């Protein structure tokens, strides 16, 4: 059992450890270089080892800023998912964890930024102090370099009669540094889970401050205030000898005045690629926005669910994928993700939207979900659709047995899947790898059943017509029931069809006993690979993950539960 | 952005600013930079801000996720009444606290962040938001035996409900209302 968990999680752990390893390698390598490099010896005399801390964290920052845009380039990820040759199974599952990786890299940026800022703080103070009248020795002499026309300076602060804040605000590096730190902090404080759940729009809009972040980052090093000795000067001026013979600098031929130059900015080289890629990503989104989307049907379901059927040219989807929808009349900047609920075989695509926040409520209102009267087709607001983007459910057909578990509105990806199964069943000639599907739906009230019950009913009939009644086994769990309902249900218990849904398989009341369910599945399919697909809240996800680990056997030929979770 | 309570974001921003002020203050004091006494001030101001901002206020709509262990600080913050629940006062307090730290390089970032937090609090105050403490509800002890219904008083076979509702008629008919039932035929206990 433990072995299976290790196998399931190992790829994630390996990727995280590799990322950490690269960070540590870059940090330590750069640190040691700056601590030992001859051309920076004189800089180190003034600054000490805070120079190395600042530069090492800067390299790590460059690395992480390069990585941060990649996990959210959805079209790139879909492209990678589509190239099936190298992205099968466990690698595909890693692509589902893109948001986790984005957050991890963000934490890396925050930590390195803290080190970088604190180190440069000390550096500025040291530079300032070494210009003071009390400073003496090599540091003072080095700071005075650059006052005559044939000398290049080392110390960017030229006089003591200034304060460090003025120096900060009069250099490119200082101003851009302050700006990008502020941008980073604003992004991080508006991205906490609390804020994201309370107001997605605030999180979304504030996150766009990253544009200022990247522009500032690119020009941050333009001032070239990190200065080291030039190569020519090193040839003429032997630092190991001359550092102890300060008095001889002007006079002896062995120690001509050292010349310095600034390090050229390198951040732009790291981030150019991903920025261009992300810019292409947004251009693709904009282009898709321009494409016409025709709304063919609007259905308003009870419990505040709005169903939209749409058509778009060249739109191809797979079950379980999602699209981003924008409604310019509500908000011209927001794109919201929704899972597709139609099957690929249909000539339209549909989404089911629940009114759960500002934007969705406005959308339901705009489509006349609340009013009694029907809306004219020409008065419906225009929609833009980007996608479809890949998600875990496309893997369902690759397992011989699949367990699909959904709670509440999380059933939407599985609606598309079941419809697809329905259509493929009609064709009935194709031989599938998939032999059995277990479907669990946990729902609070029967009102939400309505739009899905029809689908299950038609599936049930079609399956029995084709003689494949045992292909799909579904279990519906009603978790919100009261005594009146219980009486009613008990009264009709002996009838053939369920009294609430009208389906042949009875509804269960209360929450499922997962141990019991997994045990049953494990007994029925002793040595198969079982794909477990879940869409719902985190708490239940943890329970199901635990069940998967518990009931997977350590024997590689035994039963294995592979867990996949859908999330936005 | 109708649903956003600006105070929520201001709270996160102010808490972050407090931490940044503390960090900058520690570096300035430990490094003995020029005007390091401002660093000491920043540490004190940062601690005060963190303590003030740690307990989250209750949202007017929906449930609020409490921060770990915030109930102790909630009690303290509640004591100050309008000084802490009014966001105008908080906005000006933060603005005032941030000014001295702006004169020291190490804490200038903290100043900028705190100023931003102060302006978001001002916006929240203009929109009429205020800080309300999250009260923990006292746990209701389940009444022992509250759900146990009284068992039926007569043994089976019991007369139907209509007969049970009219004790006066039963007595008139001579059937005993309660008490042990007399079996017409003798009953023997057969133990196998």
From TrEMBL, chain A:
A single Gene Ontology CC term: NADPH oxidase complex
Swiss-Prot/TrEMBL catalytic activity = NADPH + 2 O2 = 2 superoxide + NADP(+) + H(+)
Matching CDD domains, A to Z?
Answer: NOX_Duox_like_FAD_NADP
Q: Where does this protein reside within or beyond the cell?
A: Cell membrane
UniProt GO BP: defense response; detection of gravity; monoatomic ion transmembrane transport; otolith development; superoxide anion generation; temperature homeostasis
Membrane topology, as annotated: Multi-pass membrane protein
The answer, when asked if Cell membrane is one of the entry's keywords, is: yes
Q: List, for all copies, the residue spans of the domain called FAD-binding FR-type.
A: 285-395
Q: Which keywords label this protein?
A: Cell membrane, Electron transport, FAD, Flavoprotein, Glycoprotein, Heme, Ion channel, Ion transport, Iron, Membrane, Metal-binding, NADP, Oxidoreductase, Transmembrane, Transmembrane helix, Transport, Voltage-gated channel
Gene3D superfamilies per the UniProt record, alphabetical: Nucleotide-binding domain of ferredoxin-NADP reductase (FNR) module, Translation factors
Carries keyword Endoplasmic reticulum? Answer: no
In its UniProt record, a GO molecular function of this protein is:
heme binding
Q: Which stretches are transmembrane?
A: 12-31, 51-72, 101-119, 168-190, 202-223
Cofactor(s) for this protein? FAD
- Its job: Catalytic subunit of the phagocyte NADPH oxidase complex that mediates the transfer of electrons from cytosolic NADPH to O2 to produce the superoxide anion (O2(-)). In the activated complex, electrons are first transferred from NADPH to flavin adenine dinucleotide (FAD) and subsequently transferred via two heme molecules to molecular oxygen, producing superoxide through an outer-sphere reaction.
Q: How does it assemble?
A: Component of the phagocyte NADPH oxidase core complex/cytochrome b558 complex, composed of CYBB (heavy chain (beta)) and CYBA (light chain (alpha)). Component of the phagocyte NADPH oxidase complex composed of an obligatory core heterodimer formed by the membrane proteins CYBA and CYBB and the cytosolic regulatory subunits NCF1/p47-phox, NCF2/p67-phox, NCF4/p40-phox and the small GTPase RAC1 or RAC2. Interacts with NCF1 (phosphorylated form). Interacts with NCF2; the interaction is enhanced in the presence of GBP7. Interacts with RAC2. Interacts with RAC1.
- What name appears for this protein in its UniProt entry? NADPH oxidase 2
Q: Which organism is it from?
A: Balaenoptera musculus
Lineage of the organism: Eukaryota, Metazoa, Chordata, Craniata, Vertebrata
Q: Which gene encodes it?
A: NOX3
From TrEMBL, chain B:
**Which InterPro entries does this entry report, sorted A to Z?**
Cyt_b558_asu (IPR007732)
Q: List residues traversing the bilayer.
A: 12-30, 36-52, 72-89, 101-124
Q: Which GO terms describe its biological process?
A: cytochrome complex assembly; establishment of localization in cell; inflammatory response; innate immune response; mucus secretion; positive regulation of defense response to bacterium; positive regulation of interleukin-6 production; positive regulation of mucus secretion
User: What keywords does the record list, in alphabetical order?
Assistant: Cell membrane, Electron transport, Heme, Iron, Membrane, Metal-binding, NADP, Oxidoreductase, Transmembrane, Transmembrane helix, Transport
Tell me where on the tree of life, at the top rank, the source sits: Eukaryota
Predominant place of localization: membrane
Q: A GO molecular function for this record? A: superoxide-generating NAD(P)H oxidase activity
Keyword Electron transport annotated = yes
Q: Where is this region: Disordered?
A: 134-192
Short name of any one Pfam family annotated for the protein: Cytochrom_B558a
Cellular location(s): Cell membrane
Q: Quaternary arrangement and interactors, per the entry?
A: Component of the phagocyte NADPH oxidase core complex/cytochrome b558 complex, composed of CYBB (heavy chain (beta)) and CYBA (light chain (alpha)). Component of the phagocyte NADPH oxidase complex composed of an obligatory core heterodimer formed by the membrane proteins CYBA and CYBB and the cytosolic regulatory subunits NCF1/p47-phox, NCF2/p67-phox, NCF4/p40-phox and the small GTPase RAC1 or RAC2. Interacts with NCF1 (via SH3 domain). Interacts with SH3PXD2A. Interacts with DUOX1, DUOX2 and TPO. Interacts with NOX4; this interaction mediates superoxide generation.
Functional description taken from the UniProt entry:
Subunit of NADPH oxidase complexes that is required for the NADPH oxidase activity that generates, in various cell types, superoxide from molecular oxygen utilizing NADPH as an electron donor. Subunit of the phagocyte NADPH oxidase complex that mediates the transfer of electrons from cytosolic NADPH to O2 to produce the superoxide anion (O2(-)). In the activated complex, electrons are first transferred from NADPH to flavin adenine dinucleotide (FAD) and subsequently transferred via two heme molecules to molecular oxygen, producing superoxide through an outer-sphere reaction.
The record's PANTHER family line, in alphabetical order, gives:
CYTOCHROME B-245 LIGHT CHAIN (PTHR15168)
Q: Which family does it belong to?
A: Belongs to the p22phox family.
Protein name in UniProt: Cytochrome b-245 light chain
| Source organism (scientific name) | Balaenoptera musculus (Blue whale)
């Amino acid at each position: 059992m433990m072995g299976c968990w290790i196998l399931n999680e190992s790829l994630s752990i390996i990727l995280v450890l590799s990322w950490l390893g690269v960070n540590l390698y870059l940090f330590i390598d750069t640190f040691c270089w700056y601590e030992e490099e001859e051309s920076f010896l004189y800089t180190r005399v003034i600054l000490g080892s805070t120079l190395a801390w600042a530069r090492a964290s800067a390299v790590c920052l460059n690395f992480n800023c390069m990585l941060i845009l990649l996990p959210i380039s959805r079209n790139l990820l879909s492209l990678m998912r589509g190239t099936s040759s190298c992205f099968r199974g466990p690698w595909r599952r890693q692509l589902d964890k893109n948001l986790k990786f984005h957050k991890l890299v963000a934490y890396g940026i925050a930590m390195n930024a803290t080190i970088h800022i604190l180190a440069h703080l000390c550096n500025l103070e040291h530079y300032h102090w070494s210009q003071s009248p009390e400073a003496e020795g090599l540091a003072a002499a080095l700071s005075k370099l650059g006052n005559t026309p044939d000398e290049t300076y080392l110390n960017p602060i030229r006089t003591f009669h200034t304060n460090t804040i003025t120096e900060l605000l009069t250099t490119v590096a200082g101003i851009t540094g302050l700006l990008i730190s502020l941008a980073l902090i604003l992004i991080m404080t508006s991205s906490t889970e609390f804020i994201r759940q309370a107001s997605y729009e605030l999180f979304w809009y504030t996150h766009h401050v990253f544009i200022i972040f990247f522009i500032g980052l690119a020009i941050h090093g333009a001032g070239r205030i990190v200065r080291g000795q030039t190569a020519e000067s090193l040839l003429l001026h032997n630092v190991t000898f001359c550092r102890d013979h300060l008095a001889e600098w002007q006079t002896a031929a062995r120690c001509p005045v050292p010349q310095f130059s600034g390090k050229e900015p390198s951040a732009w080289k790291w981030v150019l690629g991903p920025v261009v890629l992300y810019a292409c990503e947004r251009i693709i989104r904009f282009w898709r926005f321009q494409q016409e989307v025709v709304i063919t049907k609007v259905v308003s379901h009870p419990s505040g669910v709005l169903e939209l059927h749409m058509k778009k040219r060249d739109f191809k989807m797979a079950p379980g994928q999602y699209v981003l929808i924008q409604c310019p009349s509500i908000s011209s900047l927001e794109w919201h993700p929704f899972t597709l609920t139609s099957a690929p075989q249909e000539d339209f695509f549909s989404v089911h939207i629940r009114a759960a926040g500002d934007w969705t409520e406005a959308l339901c209102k705009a489509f006349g979900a609340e009013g009694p009267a029907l809306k004219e087709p020409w008065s419906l607001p225009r929609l833009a659709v980007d996608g479809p983007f890949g998600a875990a459910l496309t893997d369902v057909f690759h397992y011989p047995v699949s367990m699909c578990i959904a709670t509440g509105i999380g059933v939407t990806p599985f609606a598309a899947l079941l419809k697809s199964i329905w259509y493929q069943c009609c064709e009935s000639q194709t031989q599938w790898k998939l032999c059995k599907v277990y479907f669990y739906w946990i729902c609070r009230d029967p009102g939400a059943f309505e739009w899905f019950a029809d689908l299950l009913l038609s599936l049930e009939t079609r399956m029995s017509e084709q003689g494949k009644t045992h292909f799909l086994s579904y279990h519906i769990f009603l978790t919100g029931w009261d005594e009146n309902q219980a009486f009613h249900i008990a009264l009709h218990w002996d009838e053939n069809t369920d009294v609430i849904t009208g389906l042949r398989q009875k509804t269960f009341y209360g929450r499922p006993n997962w141990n019991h369910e997994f045990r049953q599945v494990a007994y029925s399919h002793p040595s198969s690979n079982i794909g477990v697909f879940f869409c719902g809240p985190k708490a239940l996800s943890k329970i199901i993950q635990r069940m998967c680990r518990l009931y997977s056997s350590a024997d590689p030929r035994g039963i294995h539960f592979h867990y996949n979770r859908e999330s936005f | 952005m109708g649903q956003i309570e600006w105070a929520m974001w201001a709270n996160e921003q102010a808490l972050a600013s407090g931490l940044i002020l503390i960090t900058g203050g520690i570096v300035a004091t430990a490094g003995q930079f020029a005007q390091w006494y401002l660093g000491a001030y920043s540490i004190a101001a940062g601690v005060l801000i963190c303590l003030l901002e740690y307990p989250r206020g209750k949202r007017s709509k929906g449930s609020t996720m409490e921060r770990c262990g915030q109930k102790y600080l909630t009690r303290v913050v509640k004591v100050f009444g309008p000084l802490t629940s009014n966001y105008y006062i908080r906005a000006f307090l933060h603005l005032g606290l941030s000014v001295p730290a702006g004169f020291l390089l190490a804490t200038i970032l903290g100043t900028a962040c705190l100023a931003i937090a102060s302006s978001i609090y001002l916006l929240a105050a203009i929109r009429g938001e205020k800080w309300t403490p999250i009260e923990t509800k006292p746990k209701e002890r389940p009444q022992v035996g509250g759900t146990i219904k009284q068992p039926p008083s007569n043994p089976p076979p019991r007369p139907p409900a209509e007969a049970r509702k009219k004790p006066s008629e039963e007595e008139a008919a001579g059937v005993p209302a309660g008490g042990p039932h007399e079996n017409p035929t003798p009953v023997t206990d057969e133990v196998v």
